[in-house]
């Protein structure tokens, strides 16, 4: 959650900076907020009323707007309890005072109904009269309660040629209540944003600020899915092969568009769900003369791992690491095929053979590319030979400490005690130095050392007499 919050903050900062640069050269078109002041805004979320949350988020969001940004404010349901015409322009679209917006919103007392269609009509009539284009942002925690159809209102206005973009933020709505709102946002060439809480409302307001009527129309759409179901994801677009950010969007479980000049880009796609990892899609192409859509699938692929020893199934641990070195999956082979599911991406796979000793018990395979629905088969064969040592005094086996080092490097690879039965070692092929030191009643006897060569599949037996 903390990572997502940081990501959103940086994203909003980029948008704010870009917006201020663009607005410095041209006065931006008005943004008109239609604010929900119906009685349901007294409802509680996170220990606060929806009214308090919405007022606070709206006040904070407009703080990132340029100083010459015109901000209009229209409210509905705040004066009369049962009046479907209770819609009032509280601040004209010529207003540039952010403090006036904040103080006005905080003074509103929710009371009445939810006349969405009539509210939209009121604002559209103002645009028609003033012959001005604008971005309209409707914030609502409920559906139409006055028999209007906001989708029809918006569709007719667009056919008439009135120039506006409509975004709708549904605050705490159920999925079954959003159909007409999504229809209206689509007809208004804007987006519908689902805000389940204060954080979601803030996220939506940040993106709304980057999707105004003044922005170039989006030509590159992204749709994110997992297991054939749409998911919500952030998408950052970079110039291909660089870290130069070009644009960003959030999918909200739908196909959402951003503008990318003709060229090739790398997309960093980060799902909002904490149990799904981000992926990078490289060299996607955008075109000037047509819209492009890209579906990003987070369906898992599989890595099927097999380890053998001298050609026969062997038990090993398997670790799969992402590009940052984080272990994303793991397990043991137990001498069989081990399948591990991961998100599409590039991975490093590490095998650690169990039981055997030596300098070749570990294997790392890098740049293993996994695509959605794909099964990547990986296999690695380890080699060993066996070495058995027995220590005796006369015909009696005695207890000793045995240490085994790889001769060329001097690295200790194994050690054990013979007790009264000898000891066996499973070793990688190599030449070893072995030191045997008597224990117990025979600890006064001098240690003995020797070298052995272990070969693949062969067994060596050595008996020392003390």
Structure explained in plain terms:
This protein is α+β, with helices and mostly antiparallel strands. The protein has 4 domains: 2-215, 3-Layer(aba) Sandwich (Rossmann fold), CATH 3.40.50.410; 218-299, Immunoglobulin-like (Sandwich); 301-382, Immunoglobulins (Immunoglobulin-like, Sandwich); 385-465, Immunoglobulin-like, CATH 2.60.40.10. It has 7 helices and 32 strands. It has helices spanning 2-25, 50-61, 98-107, 116-130, 150-160, 179-187, 198-208, and strands at 31-36, 44-45, 48-49, 71-76, 87-91, 134-140, 164-171, 192-195, 220-226, 229-230, 233-239, 245-250, 256-258, 263-271, 279-286, 292-297, 301-309, 312-313, 316-321, 327-332, 338-342, 345-353, 362-370, 375-382, 385-393, 396-397, 400-406, 412-417, 423-427, 430-438, 448-454, 459-465. The strands form 8 sheets. It has a 6-stranded mixed beta sheet with strand order 5-4-1-6-7-8, with helices on both faces. Strands 9, 10, 13 and 16 form a 4-stranded mixed beta sheet that branches. A 4-stranded antiparallel beta sheet has the order 12-11-14-15, with no helix packed on it. α2 (50-61) packs parallel to α7 (198-208). It starts with a helix and ends with a strand.
Map the helices and strands.
Elements: H1 2-25, E1 31-36, E2 44-45, E3 48-49, H2 50-61, E4 71-76, E5 87-91, H3 98-107, H4 116-130, E6 134-140, H5 150-160, E7 164-171, H6 179-187, E8 192-195, H7 198-208, E9 220-226, E10 229-230, E11 233-239, E12 245-250, E13 256-258, E14 263-271, E15 279-286, E16 292-297, E17 301-309, E18 312-313, E19 316-321, E20 327-332, E21 338-342, E22 345-353, E23 362-370, E24 375-382, E25 385-393, E26 396-397, E27 400-406, E28 412-417, E29 423-427, E30 430-438, E31 448-454, E32 459-465
Parallel strand pairs: 1-4, 1-6, 6-7, 7-8, 9-16, 17-24, 25-32
Antiparallel strand pairs: 2-3, 4-5, 9-10, 9-13, 11-12, 11-14, 14-15, 17-18, 17-21, 19-20, 19-22, 22-23, 25-26, 25-29, 27-28, 27-30, 30-31
Helix pairs in contact: 2-3, 2-7, 4-5, 5-6
Organism: Marixanthomonas spongiae
Signal peptide: 1-19
Protein name: VWFA domain-containing protein
């Amino acid at each position: 959650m903390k990572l997502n919050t940081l990501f959103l903050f940086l994203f909003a900062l980029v948008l704010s900076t870009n917006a201020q640069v663009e607005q410095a050269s041209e006065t931006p078109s008005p943004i008109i907020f239609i604010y929900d002041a119906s009685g349901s805004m007294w409802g509680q979320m996170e220990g606060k009323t929806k009214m308090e949350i919405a007022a606070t988020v709206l006040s904070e969001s407009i703080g990132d707007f340029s100083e010459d940004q015109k901000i209009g404010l229209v409210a509905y349901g705040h004066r009369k309890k049962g009046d479907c015409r209770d819609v009032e322009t509280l601040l004209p679209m010529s207003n540039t005072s952010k403090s006036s917006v904040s103080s006005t919103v905080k003074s509103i007392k929710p009371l009445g109904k939810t006349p969405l269609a009539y509210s939209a009509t009121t604002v559209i009539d103002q645009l028609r009269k003033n012959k001005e284009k604008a971005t309209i942002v409707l914030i609502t925690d409920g559906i139409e309660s006055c028999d209007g159809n906001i989708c029809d209102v918006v569709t007719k206005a667009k056919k008439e040629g009135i120039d506006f973009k409509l975004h709708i933020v549904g605050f705490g709505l159920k999925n079954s209540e959003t159909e007409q709102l999504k229809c209206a946002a689509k007809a208004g060439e804007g987006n519908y944003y689902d805000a389940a809480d204060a954080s979601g409302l803030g996220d939506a307001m940040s993106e709304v600020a980057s999707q105004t009527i003044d922005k170039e129309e989006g030509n590159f759409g992204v749709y994110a899915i997992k297991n054939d179901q749409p998911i919500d994801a952030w998408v950052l677009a970079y110039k291909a092969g660089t870290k130069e950010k070009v644009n960003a969007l959030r999918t909200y479980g739908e196909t959402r568009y951003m503008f990318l000049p003709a060229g090739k880009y790398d997309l960093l796609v980060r799902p909002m769900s904490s149990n799904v990892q981000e992926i990078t899609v490289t060299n996607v192409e955008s075109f000037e003369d047509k819209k492009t859509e890209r579906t990003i699938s987070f369906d898992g692929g599989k890595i099927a791992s097999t380890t053998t020893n001298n050609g026969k199934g062997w038990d090993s641990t398997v670790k799969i690491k992402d590009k940052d070195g984080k272990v994303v999956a793991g397990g043991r082979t137990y001498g069989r095929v081990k399948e591990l599911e991961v998100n599409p991406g590039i991975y490093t796979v590490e095998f650690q053979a169990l039981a055997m000793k030596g300098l070749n018990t570990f294997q790392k395979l890098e740049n293993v590319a996994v695509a959605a629905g794909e099964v990547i088969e990986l296999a690695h064969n380890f080699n060993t030979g066996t070495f058995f040592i027995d220590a005796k005094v006369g015909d009696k086996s005695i207890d000793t400490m045995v240490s085994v080092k790889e001769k060329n490097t001097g690295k200790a690879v194994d050690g054990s005690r013979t007790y009264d039965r000898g000891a066996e070692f499973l070793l990688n092929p190599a030449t070893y130095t072995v030191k045997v030191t008597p224990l117990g009643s025979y600890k006064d006897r001098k240690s003995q050392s020797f070298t052995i060569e272990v070969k693949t599949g062969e067994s060596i037996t050595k008996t020392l007499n003390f």
